[in-house]
Amino acid sequence: MSPRDEQAETDVATSFSSNGSDPDGLSSESDSFASGKPDDGTTFLADLVKAMQSTAAAEQARSTELTEQRRQAHVDAIRAREAIEAEDLRELAKDDVKGIDSWSDGEIKRIKLERERRIAARREQLHLRLEEHRTVVAREVEAVEAAVATYRTETEQFFRRLEWETDPVAIARQAGTRPVFPVLELIGPDDVLSGTDGSDATPDAPAAIAEAESDAPDAVAVADDQPVEASEDAEATPSDESATSSADDRPVDPVIGVMIA
Questions:
Q1: What is the CA radius of gyration of the chain?
Q2: Residue 78 and residue 84: Cα distance in Å, rounded?
Q3: Per-10-residue mean pLDDT, the chain, length 261
Q4: What is this structure's pTM?
Q5: What per-residue string of b and e applies to 246-261 under the rule 16 or more CB within 10 Å gives b?
Q6: In whole angstroms, how far apart are CA 245 and each of 201, 232, 252, 257?
Q7: Distance between CA 68 and CA 214 in Å, rounded?
């Protein structure tokens, strides 16, 4: 027998054994037949179970390996997608940051313009308020000056009347009409009209004083004229002079003397 034939027989025996037809099994069957024991198929079933378990184990290993491969492939795809999506998010964030910077620049310019506008408006308002305040203070000062000017005029008139008054009773009566100094704390900017009215009356005061002064020489002239007329009458009527001298020689009543003094 050639070596090729021996190899063929070996292959046949191996394939027969793998198909469940083991030559040993045949020999065991021959032995069983020889021993006279009946074949109940347990050996076949046991071999069949072993074959199915081997197939199931191989399928389990194959399934486990395939599952791991599919899992790893999917995880790798997720990781790759993660990197791509992360890069997209970075680009989107860069665009948003640029937009925010542009918006911020515009807002800063707008705020600066609004700031300058408000500052200018506030300064203009301050200027107007200062002008109004200055006007109010000027009116208040004008009212005070007018009140004081009126008081001075009335005081001058008062003392002028006392100066030309010779009757003590009239002087005492005039003393009660002395002008009272105005309460300056009660004078406000709204009193400028009344102060103006008083100032309008101020120019008339010198005219009144001048009129009083013009009337005073007339009174003096009348008083001076009376002794002249009396002297003329005395020269014209000596009898009257003698009568007058005789009247002067009469005793004077003490009460009348006191009044004359």
A1: 73
A2: 10
A3: 48 45 47 51 88 93 95 94 94 94 94 96 96 93 93 92 85 86 86 48 41 42 38 40 40 35 35
A4: 0.38
A5: eeeeeeeeeeeeeeee
A6: 54, 16, 13, 17
A7: 138
